[in-house]
Design goal:
Elements lengths: L1 H21 L20 E4 L12 E2 L8 E6 L6 H13 L7 E7 L3 H11 L5 E3 L4 H6 L12 E4 L5 E5 L7 H9 L2
Parallel strand pairs: 3-4, 4-5
Antiparallel strand pairs: 1-2, 1-5, 3-6, 6-7
C-alpha cells in the first residue's frame, strides 16, 4: 500500500512539474515597460498600403515608423464583439488624431481575416498580422498562446514605449488614447 501511494505522489509531482514547464507564466507577463524600446519585429499587415512607402506584400516594423508617434492596439480576435467595438471606436476618431500619429490594430489573425475585418467595418488603418506570435510574445501579451491580450502601446517618435494600457474598456479606450496623444 505504501509503495502504491508513493508512486501516486511521485506521479502527481512529475505531472505538476510537467505542466509548470509547458505553460510558462512568463509568456503572459508583460515583458516591457515605459521607456523600453518597442520590439522591432517585422509583420505583414492588411491594408499596409495606408502606410507611406508600403505596398501589398511588404512588412512593417517599428523602425519603419521612426519619427512618428505610433498607437498599436492589440485585440484577441477580429470580427468579435469587443474587438469590433474597440476597432470601430478608433475608426470613428481616426481623423481627430494628430497628423504625426499612426494607428495600427494588431492580433494573431491572418491577413485574410484582418482584411475582412477592415472591409466589414470600413477601418481606415492597417491591421498587423502576428500569426507566429513574434511580437505578442516579445511584449508578453499572449493570452495562453491562443490570442493576444487587449493591450495598447503608445510608441514615441524615438521608438520607445511612452505609455502602456493594460486595462482597456473597449467603449471608452479610443477616446482615452486620443486624449493622451493630443496633449
Amino acid at each position: 500500500m505504501f509503495r502504491l501511494s508513493s508512486r501516486c505522489v511521485a506521479a502527481g509531482l512529475a505531472f505538476t512539474l510537467f505542466l509548470g514547464s509547458s505553460v510558462s507564466a512568463a509568456d503572459d507577463k508583460l515583458k516591457v515597460k515605459v521607456g523600453d524600446a518597442f520590439p522591432n519585429v517585422a509583420l505583414k499587415a492588411a491594408q499596409i498600403d495606408k502606410l507611406s512607402g508600403k505596398k501589398a506584400g511588404d512588412t512593417v516594423n517599428i523602425a519603419d515608423l521612426k519619427g512618428k508617434t505610433v498607437v498599436v492596439f492589440f485585440y484577441p480576435r477580429a470580427l468579435t464583439r469587443g474587438c469590433t467595438v474597440e476597432s470601430c471606436g478608433f475608426r470613428d476618431l481616426a481623423d481627430k488624431f494628430p497628423k504625426n500619429v499612426i494607428l495600427l490594430g494588431a492580433s494573431n489573425d491572418g491577413e485574410q481575416l484582418q482584411q475582412k475585418f477592415i472591409d466589414t467595418h470600413k477601418l481606415p488603418y492597417p491591421l498587423l498580422c502576428d500569426t507566429e506570435f513574434q511580437l505578442i510574445n516579445a511584449l508578453g501579451i499572449s493570452s495562453g498562446g491562443k490570442a493576444a491580450k487587449r493591450v495598447t502601446f503608445i510608441v514615441g517618435p524615438d521608438g520607445k514605449i511612452a505609455k502602456i494600457y493594460e486595462k482597456v474598456s473597449v467603449a471608452t479606450h479610443p477616446k482615452e488614447v486620443l486624449d493622451q496623444v493630443s496633449k
